[in-house]
């Protein structure tokens, strides 16, 4: 089975800026694939290259095994859900949704039926006569989704589609998007800077950094075994240790990371634990867990995460106390340096 | 560390409480009053000078002109409007309307690509260059430009020479032999008049369209292509409808400016009056101000009808 989307050494340079730099990717048919990275990391440019809004400077993009690098957007079997929805303000919701069918010459009765079915699918049945301006942000988001899906694309591209929604709605839409994708079996390529979103929804995630892909893996692998310093720091929270400190604690020259939930106060002595002295400088309450910041030699801050159960804070150090912290050696993940 | 001195703030506060500050506070708290104060002068000017004179014009068009005494009396009559329907006068209206429509259509077709380029592609100095290039002709005297055109269009003028060099003299002769648009030479034909009108009013079409296209988000055009629309479909279904308010605004300029102009019809093109020249003649040499007023109401009525039609066609839905 050929990949739904394949990047072969794709670069997109703007003058001296390497927005996308020699990216190789294989997005499998039917998977929920996320492109994760901070702004300016190249993930949105990659999406625009797949959609055809931008052309690669070099390299090839294949859609279902067919070279598509130079095809215009209207000749690619992909559809996009835009970050700010890009609904046509002069058309009704129904006209927006049936637009793709109309330009392909589908007859009026069929496109009406299909568009209404698509609106039902996103729970917006009966909204067809409204104008986009009369809808809330969440509803516009759904219209944008219906407008793309009505064309039955084999690949759906989503460019930070939930970025403009408030937290509650965003979480609800994440669940709905995921179940929609499972039901339709369409390949979703999802661009986001929100690592929580990427981890919770995706089958696989590509982490972008400065125009390059640092790692492609399942969410669990990505979290448990980040390959580079950047991935460790960007996906979840991590204590990344480098240089002299890392060498002393791990015995090797490579940087490593430890997740805050593996770090404990007053670790048991012994060879299977690494330990270091420091001073507790801050405690933050985050609901289910509390976060402790410990300043160790060299001024670096290390984080601990402890469940905030009732009375759990008894016996724990207070801000300003000298503490000794440590973690099992098995929790240390060796990393490659990032650019 | 000493606490930041609130002393200075306290000292500065009362010392600055001058009358101007009290006035600022007063005006800030009473937004409606401030708005009224700001709007009163322009509203008065607008109400008295613009609307007032229009109403006076409308009233005048119902007054009576006595053909024998050449005097105007304020007796109300519909005779002026009845006279508009006489073949000679209706001819003037239709001739003007035909020219205004052609000029508007030609301007829109010429302006759109320029406006599109200015709005979507030109950046930095290119944009500035286009703005100046579009507006520069408006800085020169309109009369001078029209006189210049009479020379350009005359037999032996630069346009005849250029068409001759291009081997298009035959095509020109053919165009001038056509009824209605033709004439003995370019400078005495309706075709020539059309060229001058289109030249003079084109900037008034380009700028509003450019502003309208600039307001169309790029991603709407991308969304259209993404949904499978070829460039022609995107233009017809998305760009044009969204830019239509600009086209309508521009066409109101070109349309009404042509309808009311009385200089170009005198200097370029065949004899045969336009609404503007008719008004000029009626109120100047004859003194029939009521009939002149009735003629002037025609463009106002046409524009009103045009706007109503444009609205009905959804030209302002995107606003």
What does the secondary structure layout of this molecule look like, with pairings?
The complex is a heterodimer of chains A (339) and B (319).
Chain A: E1 5-14, E2 17-27, E3 32-36, H1 43-51, E4 58-63, E5 66-67, E6 78-81, H2 93-103, H3 108-121, H4 137-149, E7 155-159, H5 167-184, E8 187-192, H6 195-201, E9 204-209, E10 212-217, H7 219-224, H8 229-234, E11 239-241, H9 243-250, E12 256-258, E13 264-265, E14 273-285, E15 289-296, E16 301-307, E17 322-328, E18 333-334
Parallel strand pairs in A: 3-8, 3-9, 6-7, 7-8
Antiparallel strand pairs in A: 1-2, 1-4, 4-5, 9-10, 11-12, 12-18, 13-17, 14-15, 14-17, 15-16
Chain B: H1 6-15, H2 19-29, H3 31-60, E1 64-66, E2 71-73, H4 79-84, H5 87-120, H6 124-139, H7 142-153, H8 158-165, H9 169-177, H10 190-214, H11 218-226, H12 231-260, H13 264-267, H14 275-286, H15 289-312
Provide an overview of this structure.
- Chain A contains nine helices and 18 strands.
- Chain A has helices at 43-51, 93-103, 108-121, 137-149, 167-184, 195-201, 219-224, 229-234, 243-250; strands at 5-14, 17-27, 32-36, 58-63, 66-67, 78-81, 155-159, 187-192, 204-209, 212-217, 239-241, 256-258, 264-265, 273-285, 289-296, 301-307, 322-328, 333-334.
- In chain A, strand 9 and strand 10 (212-217) form a beta hairpin.
- In chain A, helix 2 (93-103) packs across helix 3 and helix 3 (108-121) packs across helix 4.
- Chain B is globular.
- In chain B, 30% of the residues are buried.
- Residues 5-13 of chain B have low confidence and may be disordered.
- At the A-B interface, strand 6 and helix 2 of A face helix 11 and helix 12 of B.
Largest sheet features of chain B: 2 strands, antiparallel
Poorly predicted regions of chain A: none
Proportion of residues in β-strands of chain A: 25-35%
In N-to-C order, the SSE pattern of chain B is HHHEEHHHHHHHHHHHH
Strand content of chain B: under 5%
N to C succession of SSEs of chain A? EEEHEEEHHHEHEHEEHHEHEEEEEEE
The percent of residues in helical segments of chain B reads over 70%
**Strand element count of chain B:** 2
Q: Could you tell me how far the N terminus lies from the C terminus of chain A, measured between alpha carbons in angstroms? A: 34 Å
Total helices of chain A: the number is: 9
């Amino acid at each position: 089975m050929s990949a739904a989307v394949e990047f072969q050494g794709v670069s997109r340079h703007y003058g001296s800026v390497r927005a996308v730099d020699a990216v190789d990717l294989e997005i499998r048919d039917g998977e929920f694939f996320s492109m994760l990275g901070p702004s300016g990391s190249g993930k949105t440019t990659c999406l625009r290259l797949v959609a055809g809004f931008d052309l690669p400077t070099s390299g090839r993009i294949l859609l279902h095994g067919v070279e598509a690098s130079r095809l215009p957007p209207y000749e690619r079997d992909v559809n996009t859900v835009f970050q700010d929805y890009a609904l046509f303000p002069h058309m009704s919701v129904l006209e927006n949704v049936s637009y793709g069918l109309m330009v392909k010459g589908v007859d009026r009765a069929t496109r009406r039926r299909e568009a209404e079915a698509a609106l039902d699918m996103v729970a917006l049945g009966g909204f067809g006569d409204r104008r986009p301006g009369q809808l809330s942000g969440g509803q516009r988001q759904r219209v944008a989704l219906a407008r793309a899906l009505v064309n039955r694309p084999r690949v759906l591209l989503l460019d930070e589609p939930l970025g403009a929604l408030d937290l509650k709605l965003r979480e609800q839409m994440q669940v709905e998007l995921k179940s929609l994708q499972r039901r339709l079996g369409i390949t979703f390529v999802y661009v986001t800077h929100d690592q929580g979103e990427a981890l919770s929804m995706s089958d696989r995630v590509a982490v972008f950094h400065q125009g390059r892909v640092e790692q492609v893996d399942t969410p669990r692998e990505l979290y448990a075994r980040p390959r580079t310093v950047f991935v460790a720091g960007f996906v979840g929270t991590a204590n990344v240790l480098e240089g002299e400190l890392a060498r002393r604690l791990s015995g090797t020259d490579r940087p490593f990371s430890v997740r805050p939930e593996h770090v404990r106060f007053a670790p048991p002595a012994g060879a299977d634990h690494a330990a270091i002295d420091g001073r507790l400088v801050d405690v933050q309450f985050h609901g289910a867990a509390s976060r402790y910041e410990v300043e160790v030699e060299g001024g670096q801050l290390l984080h601990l995460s402890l469940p905030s159960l009732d009375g759990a804070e008894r016996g724990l150090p207070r801000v300003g106390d000298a503490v000794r912290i440590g973690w099992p050696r098995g929790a240390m993940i060796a990393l490659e340096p990032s650019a | 560390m000493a606490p930041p001195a609130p002393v200075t703030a306290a000292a500065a506060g009362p010392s600055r409480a001058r009358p101007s500050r009290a006035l600022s506070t007063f005006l800030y708290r009473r937004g409606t009053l401030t708005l009224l104060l700001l709007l009163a002068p322009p509203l008065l000017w607008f109400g008295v000078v613009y609307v007032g004179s229009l109403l006076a014009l409308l009233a005048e068009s119902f007054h009576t002109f006595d053909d024998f005494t050449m005097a105007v009396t304020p007796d109300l009559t519909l005779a002026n409007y009845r006279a508009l329907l006489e073949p000679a006068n209706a001819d003037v209206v239709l001739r003007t309307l035909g020219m205004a429509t052609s000029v508007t259509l030609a301007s829109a077709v010429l302006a759109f690509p320029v406006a599109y380029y200015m709005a979507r592609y030109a950046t930095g100095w290119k944009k500035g260059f286009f703005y100046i290039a579009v507006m520069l002709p408006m800085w020169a005297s309109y009369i001078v430009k029209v006189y210049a055109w009479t020379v350009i269009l005359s037999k032996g003028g630069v346009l005849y020479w250029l068409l001759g060099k291009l081997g298009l003299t035959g095509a020109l002769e053919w165009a001038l032999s056509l009824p209605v648009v033709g004439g003995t030479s370019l400078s005495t034909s309706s075709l020539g008049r059309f060229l001058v009108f289109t030249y003079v009013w084109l900037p008034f079409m380009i700028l509003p369209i450019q502003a309208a296209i600039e307001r169309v988000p790029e991603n709407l055009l991308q969304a259209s292509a993404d949904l499978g629309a070829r460039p022609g479909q995107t233009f017809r279904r998305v760009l044009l409808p969204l830019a239509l308010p600009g086209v309508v605004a521009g066409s109101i300029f070109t349309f009404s400016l042509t309808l009311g102009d009385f200089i170009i019809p005198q200097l370029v093109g065949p004899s045969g009056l336009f609404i503007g020249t008719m008004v000029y003649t009626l109120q100047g040499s004859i003194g029939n101000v009521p009939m002149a007023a009735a003629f002037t109401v025609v463009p106002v009525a046409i524009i009103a009808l045009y706007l109503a039609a444009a609205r009905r066609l959804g030209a302002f839905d995107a606003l």
